Each structure stands twice: as C-alpha cells, then as structure tokens.
Amino acid sequence: MLLVTTITSTAIILLPGAIAGRDAWLATLGGLAVGLVMAVTISFLGQRFPGETIIEYTEILLGKYIGKTVSALFLTFFGYLAALTLWDFGVFISSSLLVGTPMMAINIIGILVATYTARYGLEVIARVNQIFLPLIIISVLLASIIVFTMPKTSLAHILPVLENGTKPLLAGTAKVADWLGEVIVLSMVIPFLYPQKHSRSVAMVSVLISSLILLLVSLVVVATFGDISPTLFFPFYSAVLLIEISRVLRLDVVITTIWIIGSFIKISFLLYILAHGTAQWFKLVKHNFLIMPLAVIILSLSLIILKSVAEYQSISLQISGYLLFISLVLPAFLLLTAIITGRTTGKKDVK
C-alpha cells in the first residue's frame, strides 16, 4: 500500500479546490476514471515483462537509444515528484508550524531523514508504511467526521454543480489525474511483488482507496468553506484547525504529524526508486551509492523549483498535460507497442 501513501500524502493537503472550487469532488471522480486506466496499463506491462522495471522494458520495446531517452523521462518524473514533495513539505512547515524558519533548513532535515530511510531499502520503507498508513487513514476519517458535525458545515455548499461551467472541472480532473498518475511508481516495484499477477489488483485498489480519501477531503473542504475554498492553499488543514473539542485533543497536531511522516515515506520511496532506476539506466549492479548524490540534487531542486505558492498554483495548471503524457500516454504507447510486436520476456514470476 505504498502507492496510497505516495498518492495521498501531498494530495490531502494540496486539494484541487483552487482549480475546481466547489466541484472539486466531481473532479476527484473524473480523475478516478483516468487513474484506473493508468493502473491497468502499468499492471499489464508489469505482467508482460515480469522481473523487469519500466526502465528495463522500455529499452527492450523501443531500442537502446530511443528507449534510454524515454526511460530518462520516467526518471526525471520520479525526481520531479520527489523535489516537489520536499518543496510541499518545506512550504507547509515554514508557513504553518515553524513560521520564520528558513525553508532550506527544513528541507535539509527532511532530505536527511529520507536519505537515511532509503539506504535501508524498499522492505524497510514498506514496513514503516504498514505502521503509519492506517493512522493516516484513521486520522483523516476522524477529522472528516468531526468537521461534518460542526454547525457551519453543510453539504449544501457543494451546490450549484458546475456553476462556472466545465472548464474548471476539467482542469481539476486533470490535476487529480496527475496525483493518481503517481501510480506509475508501481512500474518500478512490480518485480518485488510476489506473485506479480496481483499487481493489477494492487494498483486498482490503491487508486480506488486514494480516490475515496481525496473525495472525502474534497467534500469536507467544500462543505466547510464553500465559495472561499479556492483561496486556501492548505484547505483540509484549515478545516481541521476549526475543530475545538478540548485542550487535550489537538487533532490538528495529529493530522500534521501523520502528514509529515507520510511525506517522509513518500520522499524516501521516490528517492529509492530513482536511485534503483538510475542504476539500471547506467547498467550498474548496485544503487545505494547513488542515493546521496541524488538526494543533493532533489534538495537543490526543491529550493529552486518554485518561488511561491502563487507560482505553484499557476504552474500546476500549465504542466498537467506534460505530467499526464508521462504517466498515461507513454505507458499506453509502450503497452500498445508490446502487443503489436508481441514482445515479452517470457519469464515467470520472480520474487
């Protein structure tokens, strides 16, 4: 279930409310349909090339030079996700918790923890995720239930549907599809699944669970803030801050802590598969020695990739097409190529 943490850890905080407004919940449903197509595509490729990652079978399908070029796009995508997640982490902490603390200091701490975890391998990351994913889901459910019981919260705020037409909805759907498109990371870990025939169900269940979480969060935000939800950069966190039960129970602290841990897991996972994929790209036997230099690159990118929250909201709309090209179009093209050419490794499941 690393996929659920990968998809939702940042999406919970950065809901597409600024894009789809009160129709954010509809955007989530639209994104779900696209996400399921991505999940099926990736799982079919994994079953056709058991024991190999997308970096390896891309070269098999497209040849050495074109294959390496396309696989480099996938590696760039993984690196971009890691840097953006670290940026999200730094912005959230520096603007909401440790106000005034330099973002560089926060990001350095974040990448050091992620690097330490990634060096222990995929199994350790997965076991840490097994512990904290249930806590993430429970905390989101608990917070949502409490917010829904508050007097000012009303599902009537989701009406009227499509008030601003379909354009904001389509933009929101594309953004949700971007998040769900992170299911492509499965293409790097299918070789570690046993039996690999379960990869399709793993992918589809992960996308479904992630979509349900995002749907719930979307409804909470819109029901709480209505028309002003598009103006909030951390809308779900803002909704949780409204909860006042007692001085003992600080649910915002719980949500924040769980989200920070989820971000660490996601960055560690992305750093691991980036190092693993880079080693395969260069035909190297080991990848651990690549983790530190790649971590430095990710840290550097997280500090220069975006200058402000406003820039993030603007650029996220502009690059949605490019991200969908990598997470949806390229895998679909690879699968079509494999079917037409009849290419397959012919290997059986490997552990």
Protein topology:
Blueprint: H1 2-11, H2 17-20, H3 24-48, H4 54-62, H5 64-97, H6 103-118, H7 122-148, H8 167-180, H9 186-189, H10 199-225, H11 235-241, H12 251-281, H13 288-304, H14 309-318, H15 320-341
Helix pairs in contact: 1-10, 1-12, 3-8, 3-10, 3-15, 4-5, 5-6, 5-12, 5-13, 5-15, 6-12, 6-13, 7-10, 7-12, 8-15, 12-13
Summarize it.
It contains 15 helices and no strands. With 351 residues, it is an all-alpha fold.
Order of helices and strands: HHHHHHHHHHHHHHH
Please give the largest β-sheet. Answer: none
Tell me, what is the CATH class? Mainly Alpha
CATH topology: Amino acid/polyamine transporter I
- End-to-end Cα distance, whole Å, is 18 Å
Helix and strand composition category:
mainly alpha
Number of spatially distinct domains: 1
Q: State the fourth-level CATH superfamily.
A: Amino acid/polyamine transporter I
Strand content: under 5%
Indicate the mean pLDDT. Answer: 87
What would you report as the Rg, rounded to the nearest angstrom? Answer: 20 Å
Count of extended strands:
0
Helix content: over 70%
Uncertain runs are none
Number of helical stretches of at least 4 residues: 15
The appropriate CATH architecture is Up-down Bundle
Shape summary: globular
